[in-house]
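Lab meeting, item 3. Inverse folding demo.
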C-alpha cells in the first residue's frame, strides 16, 4: 500500500480549499455525464471512486443513484470523508485496489479524478490491467489528470502535496486503450489565472 503523508498532513487544509466536489462547471458536468453513462450501461456491480480524497465526488455519485464506494491511501483524507458522509463506504486502499473486498461483486465503473497523477507512470500499465481484469465489457471509466501539451510526454511536475505526473491526453488515452478501455470522449480545459496552472484532461472510456 502506498503512503501519502502529504495528503495526511494537509487533509484539513484540502477540505477548506475544496469545499465542493468540482471547481469548474466542466468538471461538474463530466461527473454528471459519467453517472448517466454508468446508469445507462446496465453493467452490474459497484462503482469505485479511486483516490476519493475527502469523498465529495463519491457522495455526488451516490446522490445520482450509483452504488459507489471511495478508496484512498490517505487515512486523514478518509477520516474526513467518513465523518462527512457517514452513510457511505470508504476503504483504505490505493489505485491497485488490492485491499478492496467487494464480497464477490464486480466493479461496474471506475472514476479516478486527479489521483492517477500520483501513481508513478511505470506502475500505470499494471494498475489499468488490474482494473480491466475486475471489470466486464461495457464498464465505464473516467480519468481526470493534469495534462501536458508536449506530444507523447508524461512529465513530473511540482505538485504541492505529493509526487505527481502530467500526461499528454493522447498518451493517457493510449494507456487506457492498451489496457482494454477504449476512449469514448475527452475534454481538455486550458489553464488560466485563478483557475488551474496546467491544461486538464478528462478521458471517458469503455471496457472493450
Ligand atoms: C487531488 S486529490 C483528488 C481527490 C478526489 N479524487 C477529487 O477529485 O476531489 C488526489 C487524491 O489521490 C490520492 N492518491 C494519492 N496517491 C494515490 C494512489 N497511489 N492511488 C490512489 N489514490 C491516490 C490522494 O490521497 C488524494 O486523496
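The presenter then showed the designed sequence:
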Amino acid at each position: 500500500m502506498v503512503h501519502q503523508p502529504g495528503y495526511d498532513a494537509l487533509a484539513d487544509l484540502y477540505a477548506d480549499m475544496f469545499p465542493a466536489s468540482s471547481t469548474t462547471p466542466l468538471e461538474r458536468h463530466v461527473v454528471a455525464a459519467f453517472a448517466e453513462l454508468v446508469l445507462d450501461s446496465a453493467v452490474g456491480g459497484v462503482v469505485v471512486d479511486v483516490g476519493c480524497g475527502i469523498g465529495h465526488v463519491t457522495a455526488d455519485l451516490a446522490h445520482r443513484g450509483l452504488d459507489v464506494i471511495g478508496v484512498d491511501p490517505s487515512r486523514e483524507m478518509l477520516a474526513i470523508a467518513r465523518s462527512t458522509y457517514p452513510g457511505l463506504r470508504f476503504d483504505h486502499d490505493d489505485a491497485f485496489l488490492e485491499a478492496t473486498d467487494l464480497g464477490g461483486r464486480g466493479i461496474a465503473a471506475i472514476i479516478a479524478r486527479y489521483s492517477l497523477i500520483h501513481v508513478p507512470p511505470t506502475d500505470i500499465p499494471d494498475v489499468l490491467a488490474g482494473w480491466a481484469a475486475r471489470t466486464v465489457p461495457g464498464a465505464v471509466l473516467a480519468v481526470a489528470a493534469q495534462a501536458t501539451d508536449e506530444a507523447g510526454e508524461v512529465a513530473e511536475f511540482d505538485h504541492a502535496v505529493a509526487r505527481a505526473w502530467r500526461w499528454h491526453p493522447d498518451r493517457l488515452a493510449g494507456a487506457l486503450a492498451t489496457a482494454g478501455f477504449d476512449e469514448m470522449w475527452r475534454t481538455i480545459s486550458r489553464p488560466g489565472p485563478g483557475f488551474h496552472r496546467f491544461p486538464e484532461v478528462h478521458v471517458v472510456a469503455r471496457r472493450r
